Amino acid sequence: MLFDSHAHLNSERYDADDLENIVAAIEKSDLSYVMDIGYDLASSVAAIEHAKKYPWCFAAVGCHPHDAKTMDETALTMFRGLAKKSKVKAIGEIGLDYFYEHSERDVQQYWFRRQVQLALALDMPIVIHDRDANDDVMRILKEEGVFSKARNERLGDAKLLMHCFSGSKELAHQYVKLGATISVAGPITYKNARKTIEVVQEIPIEHLVIETDAPYLTPEPFRGKRNQPDFVEYTARKIAEIKELTYEEAAEITCNNAKKFFSID
Ligand code: NI
After folding, report:
1. Most buried in the list 98, 176, 192, 239, measured by CB within 10 Å?
2. Could you tell me the distance, in angstroms and rounded to a whole number, from the CA of residue 212 to the centre of ligand 1?
3. What domain range is 64 assigned to?
């Protein structure tokens, strides 16, 4: 039992043959669920198609900060329509990326805010991408009322997922206190992962989920190769080691956390 809470089966880096092989690998593995995450309109549509086709697949729709410059009002209206399709469980990935800065910062912030507002209007979970933009992400989420008592009460918690968390344990604590969920990916298996290992040590396991971010961020022992969802097993094994659980326990707990987060029965 494993849940890859963040993958891009919709990525252009997979052609039809790749996808066929990856689907076969998923179906042979311990994976029970994969969340296919949109990063623009086309990839969000593709994620919905995958969710239709595969019983273990669910979708999130949204525009990544890299692609914020492609956004306009028409696109936002289209995302609103896509968000209502069956098996779409979240808005994401949305956020800010000041490391690559493929879109101007003010453009990123504007469309991040608008998509947060969309998620709030639809009462949907939000999947966040935050790279080198900790303060602005937190500020915008607070300004938009993501952590409001009313939303928390309606949805059970903040329904905010920090994808591939790379911040400090102090920041992780802040998010957990606000009711958010922390997701860790393959880099926790790398030699220099001390900071993220500390995060996992510190936060209660109820607030933790795991992901691949495939085709990126391949865990050890496959680092250097292209990533795929069934490799989430290696992240689960690392979580088990850090939290002093068996692999089966770590897999089951993080799977149940993700199911609860995305409201999947
Ligand atoms: Ni991603």
Report:
1. 239
2. 9
3. 2-261
Ligand 1 centre to CA of 164 (Å) is: 8
- 3 state DSSP class of 83: helix
Distance of CA 94 to the CA centre of its chain: 9
Residue-level pLDDT at 81: 98
Q: Give 203 Cα–ligand 1 centroid separation in angstroms.
A: 22
Ligand 1 midpoint to CA 93 (Å): 7
Centre of ligand 1 from the C-alpha of residue 8, in Å: 7
What does the pLDDT look like over 1-21, one tens digit per residue? Answer: 999 999 999 999 999 999 999
Beta-bridge partners for 61 = 91
pLDDT value at position 112? 98
User: Could you give the CA distance from residue 168 to residue 246 in angstroms, rounded to a whole number?
Assistant: 26
At 46-72, the pLDDT tens digits run 999 999 999 999 999 999 999 999 999
Provide the domain count of the chain.
1
